[in-house]
Design a protein that fits this description.
CATH class of the domain at 239-458: Alpha Beta
Number of helices: 9
Strand content: 15-25%
Distance between the termini: 24 Å
Helix content: 10-25%
CATH superfamily of the domain at 239-458: SGNH hydrolase
Largest sheet: 5 strands, parallel
């Protein structure tokens, strides 16, 4: 058995060396001027590789006329699509669901092609003009009325024909003979996958094929190129702080695990995140954690406790902890807030300033410890940094640091999902493409990242290096 392990380790090391040797000192950059191509400089050789344009879909939708534009919409991106009473405010051109039927809750970001939009009356007898009859949010493909020029809101019928681009990840790869090529990925509305390299080839970079035109044409900029140099998996911070929970799992005892959080913890936007909770059919990260632990520890009864709700922050966490979670006497409380705490109107203050956020996190931990529970803090994902004037991505480091500081001061475990999330860039995957709604909700792969970082704390001893 030892010989087999040694041979396997040597084989893996050889494969890693082979990949590094093939990659060598390779530089990949946009063509000049930027277009649908990249320049690969490999030692003394220069290769110019062409990339296929993004796939474009055509669509026609008919809907009731939206409400009139109001200045209060501007601090929010995308514009709020529904009023507090549930009434429809905007006409959203983004598809309501992806190719597999999973809801897209915010919309497609910079994928609705503005020049393709034609707005008419339902019977086609009148064509409306942008900025005269309606206003367009180009980034999100949203239409609102201007002075009822589209007709009375909620009554008149409006027809819109338009095109939208699909997103794609292509792979730059290098063969053993030195040939460099582009392997085309699969186009998707959201969350495209990076293709695997062909047998024997080394993966050099992921290329984000952006459907948003620059100066009227498709172009690959420097921020579309993601050289591949994978970082090691993020290790648990204070793994020993959940040792009692792991011991009970090993002993085959019942373990109660509570999940506190917002819409990400609710499961958005994994497929059918609202159904089959705590089963393998549900691909939200809490269900992934529970089902994985049940396989790792088949003698244990693992009881999950739900303490999550969309659109919430730490203030909700304090409330649900007292009312719902603590009465169940959990062994471990996972605390995952921050995304909504750091959110707020563009140009305004965050919903929960970082000082108050840290104080709330500390209060959550103390209350959990008072009933004998262990706690694990979870650092949040990065929201889409490409959204203009959105300050959430810039605020993320300070909120992550608040979580790290609270964890150190209170000696509790911290799952650094933030770093694992951002490290996907070193695998050739732009982190923002993990967002199913192009905004703040992870897709399938994003939820898997959460689950893997958490499970590294709870895996049985001797399972080897951290999960990939």
């Amino acid at each position: 058995m030892t010989r087999v392990l040694v041979v396997l380790a040597a084989t893996c090391a050889a494969l890693v060396w082979h990949g590094e040797a093939l990659r060598g000192q390779v530089v990949i950059e946009p063509t000049s001027p930027p277009g649908l191509g990249v320049v690969v400089r490999d030692g003394t050789k220069t290769h110019i590789l062409r990339v296929d344009p993004p796939e474009v879909k055509s669509e026609t939708v008919t809907a009731k006329a939206p409400v009139n534009y109001a200045s209060w919409m501007e601090p929010w991106q995308p514009w709020p699509s529904k009023g507090k009473d549930g009434s429809r405010l905007t006409m959203n051109l983004s598809p309501a669901a992806d190719e597999d039927g999973t809801q897209i809750l915010s919309g497609l970001f910079r994928q609705i092609l503005p020049d393709s939009i034609v707005v008419t009356s339902a019977d086609g007898s009148r064509t409306f003009k942008k900025d005269e009859d309606y206003r367009l949010n180009e980034d999100w493909g949203q239409i609102v009325n201007l002075n009822n020029r589209l007709g009375a809101a909620g009554e008149a019928e409006v027809k819109v024909s338009f095109q939208y681009g699909l997103v794609r990840l292509d792979l730059v790869q290098k063969a053993p003979d030195g040939t460099v090529s582009v392997k085309k990925g699969v186009s998707r509305m959201v969350c495209p996958a990076l293709p695997d390299p062909d047998p024997g080839c080394a993966a050099l970079a992921g290329i984000f094929v952006d459907p948003w035109k620059k100066d009227g044409r498709y172009a690959l900029a420097a921020d579309c190129i993601y050289p591949i140099a994978p970082k090691p998996p993020v290790l648990p911070i204070r793994k020993e702080a959940v040792s009692r929970t792991v011991a009970k799992l090993r002993e085959g005892k019942e373990v109660k695990i509570a999940f506190l959080g917002d819409s990400v913890t609710l499961g958005a936007e994994a497929p059918r995140w609202w159904a089959d909770l705590w089963t393998e059919k549900n691909l939200g990260y809490p269900s992934r954690v529970i089902t994985a632990l049940r396989k790792m520890y088949p003698r244990s009864v693992i009881t999950p406790i739900a303490g999550f709700k969309g659109g919430t922050g730490t203030k909700y966490g304090l409330e649900v902890l007292e009312k719902t979670v603590l009465p169940e006497k959990p062994d471990l409380v996972l605390i995952a807030f921050g995304a909504n705490d750091m959110s707020g109107p563009i140009g305004g203050k965050p919903n929960n300033p970082v000082e108050s956020f840290k104080s709330d996190i500390e209060a959550l931990v103390r209350k959990a410890k008072e009933v004998g529970a262990e706690a694990m803090l979870i650092c949040p994902l990065q929201t889409n940094p490409r959204i203009p004037k959105d300050e959430r991505a810039a605020r993320l480091p300070s909120y992550r640091q608040a979580i790290l500081d609270a964890g150190e001061e209170l000696s509790v475990a911290v799952a650094d999902v933030t770093t694992e999330w951002l490290n996907q860039a070193f695998k050739g995957i732009p982190p923002f493409l993990l967002l199913h709604n192009c905004n703040n909700h992870p897709g399938i792969a994003g939820h898997q990242i959460y689950a893997e970082v958490i499970l590294r704390f709870l895996e049985p001893a001797g399972t080897g290096r951290p999960r990939q």
